[in-house]
Design brief:
It is built from five helices and nine strands; from the N terminus they run E-E-E-E-E-H-E-H-E-H-E-H-E-H. The protein is of the alpha/beta class and 246 residues long. The strands form three sheets. Strands 6-5-7-8-9 form a five-stranded parallel sheet, sandwiched between helices. The chain has a two-stranded antiparallel ribbon with strand order 1-2. A two-stranded antiparallel sheet has the order 3-4. The chain is globular and about 50 Å long.
Length: 246
């Protein structure tokens, strides 16, 4: 059995535990009931009568070719709303960041910043190493946030999710990441939170989710992220920080 943790967005009704189809996320104290599909009421997919598509760049924190978080990324791509264009932003070819490069960034780092500039939002899919962020992911964030005054994450809607064999899967790493992204001025989706316990057979190699409740949870998570991107983008447009869509 898999365990995920989810906290509903502020103001959302907490459905009763006996409600048909309710998914109880986690176990023990603090367990919350999540109604599958409850975020779909936020899915306004039109702007001015036209379909609005958001480009979401996702970074996988593990460099392993057999990473369970890479498998999770495949599931999220399949379960994402159709108006989210999911684009992987690779980080495996980056060298170690040093301020010595600020005056003349290497091609790999320039490519990273260009890819981030081309997307509307960022999704971090990360494991937890030694109760913290993987070094490769922190290194990529360091490259992207520099040189000073050219922070690629500023005002970029962001969310995070991660898988681990343990029941508290990636919770501490995500807390580390929240702190880093706060400094980088990236608006973060604070709820729902998603800590996935990766159990044998939960996902196929191609990312299909074999457990219906987990599949529904991940679908709702991606719906929530889409709604969050829409809200942040609308606020930034109203404030004049980004140009309104034509």
């Amino acid at each position: 059995m898999s365990f995920v943790s989810c906290l509903p967005e502020p103001g959302q009704r907490r459905p009763p535990a006996h409600h048909p189809g309710v998914f109880l996320a986690g176990e023990g104290r603090g367990r919350r009931a999540v109604e599958p599909g409850y975020n779909r009421r936020f899915r306004d997919t039109t702007v001015g009568g036209f379909m609005k598509t958001y480009r979401v760049g996702y970074l996988i924190g593990s460099l392993s070719s057999t990473s369970i978080n890479r498998v999770l990324s495949k599931a999220l791509v399949m379960l994402a709303p159709s108006d989210l264009e999911m684009i992987e932003i690779p980080i495996s070819d980056l060298g170690l960041y040093s301020p010595d490069y600020d005056a003349d960034y290497p091609p790999e780092a320039r490519a990273l910043k260009q890819r981030l500039a081309s997307v509307d939002a960022v999704l971090f899919i990360t494991p937890e190493y030694n109760r913290g962020l993987p070094g490769a992911l922190k290194n990529a964030i360091d490259w992207a946030s520099r040189p000073w005054g050219q922070n690629s994450f500023a005002r970029k809607p962001a969310a995070m999710i991660g898988a681990s064999p343990g029941k508290i899967g990636t919770a501490v790493a995500q807390q580390n990441l929240k702190s880093v992204l706060s400094f980088c001025n990236a608006p973060q989706m604070s709820a729902p939170e998603a800590y996935i316990q990766f159990t044998p057979g939960l996902f196929t190699d191609t990312g299909e989710v074999t457990d219906p409740t987990t599949a529904q949870f991940l679908t709702d998570y991606m719906d929530s992220f889409r709604a969050f991107i829409c809200r942040v983008t609308a606020v930034l447009k109203d404030s004049g920080e980004i140009e309104a869509a034509a």
